[in-house]
Design a protein that fits this description.
The complex is a heterodimer of chains A (283) and B (115). With 283 residues, chain A is mainly α. Chain A is built from 16 helices and no strands. Chain A has one domain: Hypothetical protein af1432, CATH 1.10.3210.10. With 115 residues, chain B is mainly α. Chain B has 2 domains: 51 residues, Molybdopterin biosynthesis moea protein, domain 2 (Alpha-Beta Complex); 54 residues. The chains are: A mainly alpha (283), B mainly alpha (115).
């Protein structure tokens, strides 16, 4: 077993890139309190990449706005600055892990699984009438990043984990991680997000997504990501390495207090939105 | 496709097209499974009709049901770590299988030049 802790493992990882400079400008304009939506739209337009992303996002099934969104100001007012920041941060995390050796993980299927989990988490949160569906999307999007840290920082242990799983996939990958390195990818993801000052409920949702009952304060958030992960593995969109559907956590599902119809809706909507949303996040 | 008047809708029916209000806002999207309370809401909002998926005649329904059963058996090994007796697990397997079967049928119709 490795003699390093999850927090030590992430200690030397570089910081996450900053959000685009125009975000600071937008926040400053909002703080002054005299900016109209058109003024804010003009600030966004300085960043052509951000402008294009914002318009594509506003017109995607991710939001499903009934009419076409044509202007940046309109997109910004419909989506909201805070929500836009959360989604951009999700993109930055994806870019951060661009250079993982292909032998360890298929990055395409990894991000497909992650994006689909984000969509499922967002849909579940909307049905629970949560106020921050974008935050749940990001939680789902980055719930398995701990696995990428293992591949990046512990190549020898990664090989051992994957070879053991290849021989016997009856044991979940996260259990093998625990046996080999002493903790699982949830613990690592949680430590990394803590280091990057992500909100604590997002940290806990990621850390405890395979064992939500251990999350004392944010059980609901962890339960939601656990269920979203179950749904996406059940549908079979992408893969973060697991070949089988994780155990269904009945306690987590009960905590969400949703009907079976809501579950069916989540499965169908996730499948429906996936092909549209994946193009927004994967270049 | 079958346009049914709101008072003849039943719980469990699945929307083929979105239901929109007079302002064009989507109230319920495609593939939404109607519940009793949704039908009550549509009545209350004065929505006269809805486009729901109709599986066809009995023979066709039986064929689809058989395809779904086969599909459930096909995916069952992937759920080996789950409690297969749990109703939510069973519901999930059925729903995923329905999606696969409907996708197959959609492709079949496309091949026949009847999208």
């Amino acid at each position: 077993m490795s003699h390093i802790s999850a927090s030590e493992l992430v200690r030397n990882l570089p910081v996450l890139s900053s959000l685009p400079a125009v975000i600071d400008e937008l926040e400053a304009a909002l703080d002054r309190g005299d900016a109209s939506m058109t003024d804010l739209g003009e600030i966004v337009k300085k960043d052509t990449d951000l402008t294009a992303r914002l318009l594509r996002l506003a017109n995607s099934s991710f939001y499903g706005f009934p009419k076409g969104v044509e202007t940046v100001a309109e997109a910004l007012s419909l989506i909201g600055l805070e929500q836009m920041k959360q989604l951009l941060t999700g993109s930055l995390v994806m870019e951060y892990f661009e250079n993982i050796p292909a032998s360890s993980v298929n990055m395409k299927t990894f991000w497909e699984h992650s994006i689909a989990t984000g969509i499922a988490a967002k849909i579940l949160s909307i049905q629970r009438r949560a106020t921050e569906p974008e935050l749940f999307f990001v939680s789902g999007l980055i719930h398995d990043i701990g696995r990428l840290v293992i591949y990046l920082k512990l190549p020898q242990e990664s090989r051992e984990i994957l070879e053991t799983y290849e021989k016997n996939n009856a044991v979940p990958l996260y259990e093998i991680e625990k046996n080999v390195i002493g903790f699982d990818h949830g613990d690592i993801g949680g430590e990394l997000l803590k280091k990057w000052d992500f909100p604590i409920k997002l940290v806990e949702a990621v850390k405890y997504h395979h064992r939500p009952k251990y999350s004392e304060v944010h059980f609901s958030e962890a339960a939601l990501i656990n269920t979203a992960n179950f749904v996406v593995n059940a549908i079979g969109i992408g893969s973060s390495g697991e070949k089988l559907v994780p155990p269904f956590d009945a306690r987590a599902w009960e905590r969400l207090d949703l009907s079976n119809a809501a579950l069916k809706n989540t499965i169908k909507e996730t499948q429906k939105q996936f092909s549209d949303v994946v193009t927004l996040f994967v270049r | 496709m079958a346009i049914k008047s709101t008072d003849t809708l039943k719980e469990g029916m699945v929307l083929e097209s979105p239901i929109k209000n007079e302002q064009g806002q989507v109230l319920f999207g495609v593939n939404h499974v109607l519940k009793e309370k949704h039908i009550d809401m549509l009545m209350a909002w004065g929505i006269p009709e809805a486009d729901v998926i109709v599986e066809g005649d009995d023979e066709e329904e039986q064929r689809i049901e058989k395809m779904i059963t086969i599909e459930i058996e096909k995916i069952r090994p992937r759920f080996v770590r789950c409690d297969l007796e749990h109703p939510v697990v069973q519901e999930t397997m059925r729903c995923v299988s329905e999606l696969t079967v409907h996708e197959k049928l959609r492709k079949e119709r496309e091949m026949e030049g009847n999208p």
